[in-house]
Design goal:
Helix content: 25-40%
Strand content: 15-25%
Radius of gyration: 18 Å
Number of strands: 12
CATH superfamily: Phosphoglycerate mutase-like
CATH topology: Rossmann fold
Order of helices and strands: EEEHEHEEEHHEEEHHEEH
Shape: globular
Structural class: alpha/beta
Number of helices: 7
């Protein structure tokens, strides 16, 4: 079983779509997608993901299935250093690195500024992903998957950086705060996970490719910094 996760192109959040560069990125991705052997495409309901999928699949005769749980995180927190209300990541390291709960797969949602809604969205994401994988024969059992029916299928998820980190957290056990602060997934980047099924029909998903942007290089398109937080806060 293979899962390909694609982040949307460079976003124009004001209209929930793509910038001109974002459209170029998505059409560059189309040159890659047209060669993939895909069982099914899925997409977030948000405009920037929908438009990315539309452009990226423009050289196929396929249409993606919209899954509501693939939408970007719709929970916010008040970041303590700036006092701003923002997404439940993009924290200054002076804050989150001091709290051991952020380093725990099972306890990061209990950290000081996390809210019940943050945990609720995470659980909804996990349930949505598990329900999807169960359709392909992989049923969640504890921290791994039981293979009820082996599948060689590949599926593609067009979505967002935050929700990708949540899915990677659920699949690999790496805490979401470490993923979202420790890696950068560029717009239209491709992340690939494969199941490893070694004994007693037990499966675990291993990330083989993380944030690949080969299609941008091939098209001569620079990598966007959207989502790469290099903000300097003056106290």
């Amino acid at each position: 079983m293979r899962i390909i996760i694609v982040r949307h192109g460079e976003p124009d959040y004001s209209i929930d779509s793509l910038t001109e560069k974002g459209w170029r990125e998505a059409y560059a991705l189309a040159e890659r997608v047209k060669n993939w052997n895909i069982k099914e495409f899925y997409v977030s309901p948000l405009g920037r993901a929908q438009d990315t999928a539309k452009a990226a699949m423009s050289k196929t005769d396929r249409k993606p299935i919209t899954l509501d749980w693939l939408r970007e995180y719709n929970a916010t927190v008040v970041e303590p250093i700036t006092g701003r209300e923002k997404v439940p990541w993009d924290f200054f390291p002076e804050h989150w690195t001091k709290d051991d709960r952020y380093y725990s797969r099972d306890h990061w949602m209990e950290a000081d500024i996390m809210t019940t809604k943050v945990g609720q969205v995470f659980e909804e994401t996990c349930k949505g992903l598990d329900a999807l994988l169960a359709e392909y024969g992989y049923e969640r059992e504890g921290r791994l998957y039981r293979v009820k029916k082996h599948s060689d299928d590949t599926i593609v998820l067009f979505c967002h950086m935050g929700i990708t980190a949540a899915m990677l957290c659920h699949l690999t056990g790496i805490p979401m705060p470490l993923l979202i602060h420790g890696i950068f997934l560029a717009p239209t980047s491709v992340t690939i996970l494969n199941s490893e099924e070694r004994i007693n029909q037990a499966a675990y998903f291993r990330c083989q490719v993380l944030g690949d942007t080969t299609h941008l290089h091939d098209a001569g398109e620079p990598i966007s910094e959207s989502g790469y937080y290099a903000e300097v806060f003056q106290q």
